[in-house]
């Protein structure tokens, strides 16, 4: 049992790291809140007090609602694709076959590719309407090639983001799947249970905790997607999310005050989403 002396020593050793982390988090947040209350332009105009007018402008700007809708659709679409694809890949990789280790390594490899590089590969080699792989496949079956980023920009970005996060979901779900008792599956097979019944009543309930972990971690990162949008569509009403809208205000409009207000709004939305997700995952862990 830890004594008062050991607890004091532990706090003393951990203290510098906690203080440094606190400063690293609080100082940028305080500065962002301060700038969000100013009329601060980078075009040389005077800095004046704005109060809450930047927040009013941000919430009344139609671009905010388009960005919020695109953010939610991007997160929801990516989660559906990664969860469904991750479960299917995990079930496949859980089966014994020759070269299983190499295949697992190849499946996980795309997760280590930089988002910018992945977006460029998809834009120029996969979805290019002239020389892309999808255009070549369409021509093979007599169909016209599709300009993905012109007709379905948000769907295209969602596919790119989902491809990047699919290995992560597969790894987590495969790890959980390997902890499932073989005796339970063998007993179900001996009782003549169909494959679908085994999946829905044995495998899927066992994966519930892993699925909640994937949803929690992916959602936090998917809310901050930026590089894929910048590389492929450079924003626009049909594909901009909240982080890209904040970037547009700061970099393109030189409006530091409005961008800071948008940054605070993005932090609030992310924390609200994380709060409910943490409660959800907590209930699953207690079950």
What key attributes describe this structure?
two-stranded antiparallel sheet; mainly alpha; 287 residues; MetI-like fold; 14 helices
Can you put this structure into words, describing what you see?
This protein has 287 residues and is mostly helical. The chain has one domain (54-286): Orthogonal Bundle (MetI-like fold), CATH 1.10.3720. Helix content is 75%, strand content 1%. It has a two-stranded antiparallel ribbon with strand order 1-2. Helix 3 (62-93) runs parallel beside helix 8 (153-178) and helix 8 packs antiparallel against helix 11 (208-222). The longest helix has 33 residues, at 4-36.
Quick structural summary:
By secondary structure, the protein is an all-alpha fold. It has helices at 4-36, 53-60, 62-93, 100-108, 115-126, 133-140, 148-151, 153-178, 182-190, 195-206, 208-222, 227-232, 242-252, 256-286; strands spanning 38-39, 48-49.
Please give the structural blueprint:
Blueprint (H helix, E strand, L loop, with lengths): L3 H33 L1 E2 L8 E2 L3 H8 L1 H32 L6 H9 L6 H12 L6 H8 L7 H4 L1 H26 L3 H9 L4 H12 L1 H15 L4 H6 L9 H11 L3 H31 L1
Antiparallel strand pairs: 1-2
- Going by helix content, strand content and strand pairing, the class is mainly alpha
- Per the CATH scheme, the topology name is MetI-like fold
Mean pLDDT: 85
Describe the main β-sheet briefly. 2 strands, antiparallel
Described by the principal axes of the CA atoms, the overall outline is globular
Q: Separation of termini?
A: 30 Å
Helix content: over 70%
Biggest sheet, spatial arrangement of strands:
1-2
């Amino acid at each position: 049992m830890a004594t008062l002396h050991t607890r004091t020593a532990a706090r003393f050793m951990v203290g510098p790291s906690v203080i440094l982390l606190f400063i690293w988090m609080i100082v940028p947040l305080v500065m962002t809140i301060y700038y969000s209350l100013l009329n601060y332009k980078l075009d040389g105009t005077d800095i004046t007090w704005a109060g809450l007018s930047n927040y009013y402008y941000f919430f009344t700007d139609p671009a905010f609602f388009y960005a919020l809708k695109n953010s939610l659709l991007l997160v929801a679409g990516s989660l559906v694709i990664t969860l469904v694809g991750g479960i299917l890949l995990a079930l496949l990789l859980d089966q014994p076959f020759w070269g299983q280790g190499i295949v697992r390594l190849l499946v996980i490899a795309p997760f280590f590719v930089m988002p910018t590089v992945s977006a460029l590969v998809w834009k120029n080699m996969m979805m290019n309407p002239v020389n892309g792989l999808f255009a070549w496949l369409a021509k093979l079956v007599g169909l016209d090639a599709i300009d993905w980023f012109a007709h379905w920009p948000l769907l295209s970005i969602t596919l790119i983001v989902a491809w990047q996060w699919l290995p992560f979901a597969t790894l987590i779900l495969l790890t959980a799947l390997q902890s499932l008792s073989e005796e339970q599956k063998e007993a179900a097979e001996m009782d003549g249970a169909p494959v679908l019944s085994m999946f829905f009543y044995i495998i899927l309930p066992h994966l519930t905790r892993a699925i909640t972990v994937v949803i929690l971690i992916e959602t936090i990162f998917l809310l901050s997607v930026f590089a894929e949008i910048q590389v492929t569509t450079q924003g626009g009403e049909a594909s901009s999310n909240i982080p890209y809208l904040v970037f547009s205000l700061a970099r393109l409009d030189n409006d530091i005050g409005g961008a800071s207000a948008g940054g605070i709004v993005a932090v609030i939305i992310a924390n609200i989403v994380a709060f409910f997700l943490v409660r959800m995952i907590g209930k699953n862990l207690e079950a």
